[in-house]
Amino acid sequence: MSEKTVRIGAIGISHRGSGMLRLMMRFKGVICPAVCDIYEDRRDDGIEIVKNSEHYSGYQVNGYLDYKEMLEKEELDAVLVCTTWISHARIATDAMKAGLHVGVEVGGAASEEECWQMVRASEENGKFCMLLENCCYGQAEMAIFNMVKKGVFGEIIHLAGGYEHDLRDEIAYGREIRHGRLYNFMRRNGDLYPTHQLGPIAKLIGINRGNRFLSLVSMSSKSRGLNEFLKKEKGEEYDITNFNFNQGDITTTMIKCANGETISLIHDCTLPRPYSRNARVQGTKGLWMEDGNQIYIEGRSPRHEWESFDPYMEEFAHPLWKIHKKNAAKYGHGGMDFLIMAAFVDSAKNNYKPPIDVYDTAAWMAVTYLSEQSVAMGSMPVPVPDFTNGMWIDREPTRRGIFCLDEVCEEYFTDEEILTKI
Ligand SMILES: NC(=O)c1ccc[n+]([C@@H]2O[C@H](COP(=O)([O-])OP(=O)(O)OC[C@H]3O[C@@H](n4cnc5c(N)ncnc54)[C@H](O)[C@@H]3O)[C@@H](O)[C@H]2O)c1
């Protein structure tokens, strides 16, 4: 595998984009001949990152301020898109139309149409669009996936999760740090960032493969967190201290699935709190709760008592984590960033169907605009489009392999060094 090369351009070189570009350049055979950001300094940073990477072999690296010009002029196999939320789908669609595979950072969609555009561009051009949802490869999430597949929780009934991250400084100082979140919190109101929780949940219950999201309802609280924060940090005189932010401090969304499961999501980024994804997976035999690191399995746990999840994580470790664990600490977000990037590079290099495809990308991202619609209509239920156009009922088999997120493919883990050969 390692003698193959793949030419991947990078679009969006801010905090996340530069980290992901650095990570991508650690893989042998990855050539990045072009980088792009609308800011000159970030574009130039991108060029430097490539040129300073371990496997850089002296090739020309071109910088662009306009991604369309880059797509037109460069000969690429794929692009890595780490731009702001409202540009993801547009850039992904244009890149697939230009004949490139896409790895796109997480965020929600602003409209139904942009989800369909991604789906159509992928189908019509035979190119994949992989949402780089790193949380699908989290150590705990993968152990839970393994347990669900082994039936430890029985039949799954209810799932929950939250993006509960105090981002007040990143949002409030959006103009000063040239960050994309601020205007979204000013103007939108809904679950703006659903996929960290929803990605792993969707894979657990076979969304788009025998199951699908049917409808959702969403409700947002009032908005006070950013005003309080700005008052304390900047005083009353600061121009947006008393701005009437549309985005409620807490948005709660409930999704109903075709196979009867319910999913509850919380978006919580503007109040003081420690980070949590607040996951819960509950079935007919027991449940796991991320907060508190606790689990209860009927017949195994002492009656009516929580147990620590730690021994379960060890016992039910996903085979990917058995080999990745020793190196995980070297990479971002506890090692899951490495796995999502490895899965993207592996798919792009080998023209494989990716573990997260355009139907997953569209369905997960859609929750944002659907949640905005529901909030705007006083929490009315809204139907979730079926982006597979009926294929979910009887999909073709998944592509098995070490990065597969639909099955645990034990038979592929024969080689301890497999991750060094991507
Ligand atoms: N998976 C994770 O754990 C994780 C963590 C952090 C951020 N993210 C996601 O990564 C993305 C980037 O995050 P960030 O914090 O770096 O955001 P950011 O707003 O700081 O950076 C976005 C960059 O994209 C550039 N950009 C915007 N539109 C562009 C266009 N049309 N062409 C070229 N460049 C364009 C901006 O100039 C900016 O440099 C976001 O979607 C964010 O949600 C994911």
Comma- or semicolon-separated keywords:
422 residues, alpha/beta, Dihydrodipicolinate Reductase, domain 2, 2 domains, 14 helices, 35% helix
Describe the structure.
The chain has 422 residues and is of the alpha/beta class. It has two domains: 6-134, NAD(P)-binding Rossmann-like Domain (Rossmann fold), CATH 3.40.50.720; 135-322 and 358-412, Dihydrodipicolinate Reductase, domain 2. The chain contains 14 helices and 16 strands. The chain has helices at residues 15-24, 40-51, 67-73, 85-97, 112-125, 139-149, 168-172, 181-187, 195-204, 225-234, 310-315, 319-328, 336-350, 358-376, and strands at residues 6-11, 30-31, 34-36, 62-64, 78-81, 101-104, 129-131, 156-164, 213-220, 250-257, 262-268, 280-283, 286-289, 294-297, 307-308, 382-383. The strands form two sheets. It has a nine-stranded mixed beta sheet with strand order 15-14-13-12-8-11-10-9-16. Helix 2 links the parallel strand 3 (34-36) and strand 4 (62-64). The longest helix is centred in the C-terminal third of the chain and has 19 residues, at 358-376. The protein is globular and about 65 Å long. The structure holds nicotinamide-adenine-dinucleotide (NAD). Nicotinamide-adenine-dinucleotide (NAD) binds next to helix 1 and helix 4.
Number of domains: 2
- What molecules are bound to this protein? nicotinamide-adenine-dinucleotide
- The CATH topology of the largest domain, please? Dihydrodipicolinate Reductase, domain 2
Main pleated-sheet profile: 9 strands, mixed
CATH architecture of the largest domain: 2-Layer Sandwich
Output the helix-strand order.
EHEEHEHEHEHEHEHHHEHEEEEEEHHHHE
Determine the structural class based on helices, strands and strand pairing.
Answer: alpha/beta
**Judging from the principal axes of the Cα atoms, what is the shape?**
globular
- Number of H/I helices: 14
